[in-house]
Amino acid sequence: MAAEAAAAAAAGVAVGGAGLFEYNRKNFLYDRKLRQDTEYQIMDFRIKQAELWREDVKDIVGLTEVKMDTYNLCSAVMLGFCVVAFCEGRLHPGTPPWIVGCHTLSLGGAFVYFMMALWLSMQASITAKAYEVRLL
User: Fold this and answer.
1) What is d(CA 14, CA 55) in angstroms, rounded to the nearest whole number?
2) What is the pTM of this model?
3) Do 132 and 57 touch, CB atoms closer than 8 A?
4) Residue 131: CB partners within 8 Å, gap ≥ 6?
5) What does the chain look like in DSSP terms, one character per residue?
6) Which of 68, 74, 75, 109 suits a disulfide with 125, CB 3.0-4.6 Å?
7) CA angle, 68 as apex, 63 and 69 as ends, to 5°?
8) Residue whose C-alpha is closest to residue 117's, from 81, 78, 61
9) How far apart are the first and last CA of the chain?
10) Which is it for the CA torsion 124, 129, 130, 136, positive or negative?
11) Closest listed residue to residue 91, CA positions, set 100, 82, 102
12) Is 111 exposed, middle or buried (0-12, 13-18, 19+ CB in 10 A)?
């Protein structure tokens, strides 16, 4: 009788243990699915964040390039005006030599300034593009 009771108790524990295992397994699988979904969502957020960062870098570099292209255009036009003033901008005969000297000096300074502005704007545009390539 004691053996039968022990066997019945063992069978009850085995059936109850199997039910308990199934209960925990369902919870475990449900939890695993939620964790996996959460990890995928985090990866998606990180990918979108990286895309936004790349877009910001492209926008900033593009802004710099547009600005430098505008400086290039303006510097080239003003440099052309300086060359025209050097070649065709004559002062009236009888102008004192010191005014001619100041005129030539100011045109020479403007020419150098516009030439440097042209050179540096090209350099800035190239450098911005190089950093964009390096960052992306």
Assistant:
1) 61
2) 0.64
3) yes
4) 61
5) -HHHHHHHHHHHHHHHHHHHHHHHHHHHHHHHHHHHHHHHHHHHHHHHHHHHHHHHHHHHHHHHHHHHHHHHHHHHHHHHHHHHHHHH-PPPTT--HHHHHHHHHHHHHHHHHHHHHHHHHHHHHHHHHHHHHHH-
6) 68
7) 100
8) 78
9) 80
10) positive
11) 100
12) middle
- And the tokens for 133? 């390539």
Block means of pLDDT (10 residues each) for the chain, length 136 residues? 66 62 78 94 96 93 92 95 90 90 94 96 93 89
Place of tokens 């877009």: 55
